[in-house]
Amino acid sequence: MAMTIHVDIVSAEGEIFSGSAEMVYAPAAMGEVGIAPRHTPMVTRLKPGEVRVDTGGGKTMQHFYVSGGILEVQPHLITVLADTALRAADLDEAAAEEAKRRAEEAISNKSAEFEYARAQAELAEAVAQLRAIQNVRKGKRS
Fold first, then answer.
1. Listed residue (89, 49, 91, 52) closest to 69, CA to CA
2. Which of 2, 47, 85, 96 has the most CB within a 10 Å radius?
């Protein structure tokens, strides 16, 4: 039997996942991290992207979209405190495409530094949502 680690993914709206996993992948601010049971403790910021939870036992990888937040790792517990968290399968592709288009348009028509930074953040979120949708469709294992 493989070793597991408990994973909790929560947002302001509530808990979206709680269970055991053999491996978790998350979009940390400095790049993607992979976390296995008994990982050394750490805390890092999350950027918009996909959290993947491998529950093992030949089951399909579970995909979640997070808009950012904090990842806390303890040897036997991973906690994702997300600004927004959704199951990737629940994302609206048309809305994400529209948000991406609007953000790209705002970036090309920048009039103020604040608006430009906001458009860049919205573009990053839309692209992360679309990537999560694509990975769910592919049935991506890792």
1. 49
2. 85
With a threshold of 0.85, does the pTM exceed it? Answer: no
- Of residues 56 and 141, the one with the higher pLDDT is 56
Written as one letter, the residue type at 71 is L
Q: DSSP of the chain, one letter per residue?
A: ----EEEEEEETTEEEEEEEESEEEEEETTEEEEE-TTPPPEEEEE-SEEEEEE--TTPPPEEEEE-SEEEEEETTEEEEEESSEEEGGG--HHHHHHHHHHHHHHHHT--SHHHHHHHHHHHHHHHHHHHHHHHHHHT---
Report d(CA 40, CA 78) in Å as an integer. 11
Round to whole Å and give the CA distance between 132 and 129. 5
The residue type found at 91 is L
Measure the CA–CA gap between 68 and 11, rounded to whole angstroms: 10
Model confidence at 117: pLDDT above 80: no
**pLDDT tens-digit profile of 60-102?**
889 999 989 999 999 999 999 998 888 877 767 777 777 777 7
